[in-house]
Amino acid sequence: MSTIRVGMVGYKFMGKAHSNAYRALPMFFPASLRPEMKAICGRDAAALEAARAQFGWEDAETDWRKLIARDDIDLIDINAPSDAHKQIAIAAAEAGKHLFCEKPLALSLADAREMLDAAERAGVKHMIGFNYRFAPAVQLAKKLIAEGRIGQIYHIRAVFLQDWIIDPEFPLVWRLQKDVAGSGSLGDLGAHSIDLARFLVGEFKEVIGMNETFVKERPLPGSMTGLSASGSAGGERGPVTVDDATLFMARFEGGALGSFEATRFAAGHRCTNAFEINGSKGSIKFDFERMNELEVYFTEDAADVQGFRRVLATDAAHAYMDAWWPAGHTIGYEHTFTHEVLELMTAFAEDRQPTPSFVDGVRCQEVLEAVDRSIAERRWVSVSEL
Ligand code: SOE
User: Fold this and answer.
1) Burial category of 27 from C-beta neighbours within 10 Å (exposed 0-12, middle 13-18, buried 19 and up)
2) C-alpha to C-alpha distance for 167 and 74, rounded to whole angstroms
3) Fewer beta carbons within 10 Å, N or C terminal of the chain?
4) Binning pLDDT at 50, 70 and 90, where does residue 52 land?
5) Locate the Gfo/Idh/MocA-like oxidoreductase N-terminal domain: which residues (predicted)?
């Protein structure tokens, strides 16, 4: 096996990010298995054809069932809105296709578990798109923690702050509809923070949260439905059925305490996916808007030079960086997807499950659901209840 033949469902934001990753991979990681961009799938034939030509896919299909039925495809990459994940993933697994699915895995924990069961029954590989794990500075944080250089972890303080719906006239796009998106800020943004916390600190034990929907009705969307959508011409409005902001506290199995905040109403914050971790021997700080940097503090430093130091994670000593540019030449958001696809292709080459897999998708969904339950029932909810 020298190539993996990919069929991708969805061609908007994530479809573009994944296409770019498939194209960049062989150029920068030539030793990796090669993804073959076989067919892209979406419902609007004209827009799909434009995306096919622009992104460089061989072929296009307007029906995902036909895509799955093709015998020249090994892997189904699911970038469609969240309500389509389950049906496509289960059908693809039953057809013996490997799976790569965007986050959150599903609309509910029960659905996520069904997806994992289907993948395990079929014996296929399964990966979920938690791309921020693949920033070299986050990999460095993981390494420092694994090597014990931060010591025992006491705290994680994580925020994912955006402001793209702060205008009450911003339309009711699918991400603001519970039946399509599952949840709002919590599932879209908080899911990334939960995954990073699991990656770096360990499993969640119990949570308690609160949320708010600040703008309860919005104009129905016009033709554009993405993050830069515009309102409807008719002036009709509909209810927002997801959370605009969710905050929660957590206790981890290993004894650490965590606080989490996910919001789309933090004016001035375009994509502040940030965390601070404090341990017995030091601290780590990361902010995606400065994704090439990791701030670290070591209690063992001499007293006269103690302080946070800024490490630029662009040297060959840092994960993935020897494949890119000379030290100090920074990389961006899109590279996290290239590294993600590298992990997927490496898992094929080594015949193992990629990480993060649907198991991580389910674990994340457990925490999402525990937070929702704690809000509904106004109490601490332990993850083992679910
Ligand atoms: C929009 O809020 C969004 O694009 C999320 O859907 C992504 O998962 C996150 O990485 C950035 O913000």
Assistant:
1) exposed
2) 43
3) N
4) very high
5) 4-130
CA 321 / ligand 1 centre spacing (Å)? 24
Measure the CA angle with vertex 154, ends 152 and 159; round to 5°.
125
Task: Establish whether residue 188 lines the binding site of ligand 1, counting it when its CB lies within 6 angstroms of any ligand atom.
Answer: yes
Cα distances from 112 to residues 76, 119, 273, 317, in angstroms, run 17, 11, 24, 37
Take atom 5 of ligand 1 and give the residue whose Cα is closest.
188
Average pLDDT over residues 127-148: 98
Q: What is the ipTM of this complex?
A: 0.95
Q: Is the CB of 81 under 6 A from ligand 1?
A: no
Longest dimension (CA), the chain: 66
Write the single-letter amino acid at 310.
R
Mean pLDDT of the chain: 96
* DSSP, res 122: H
Residue nearest to atom 6 of ligand 1 (CA): 188
> pLDDT for 230-272, tens place per residue?
666 578 999 999 999 999 999 999 999 999 999 999 999 999 9
Give 221's DSSP letter: B
Mutate to test the pocket of ligand 1, among 175, 188, 196, 289 (most ligand atoms within 8 A of CB): 188
Centroid of ligand 1 to alpha carbon of 285 (angstroms): 21
Q: Is the CB of 271 under 6 A from ligand 1?
A: yes
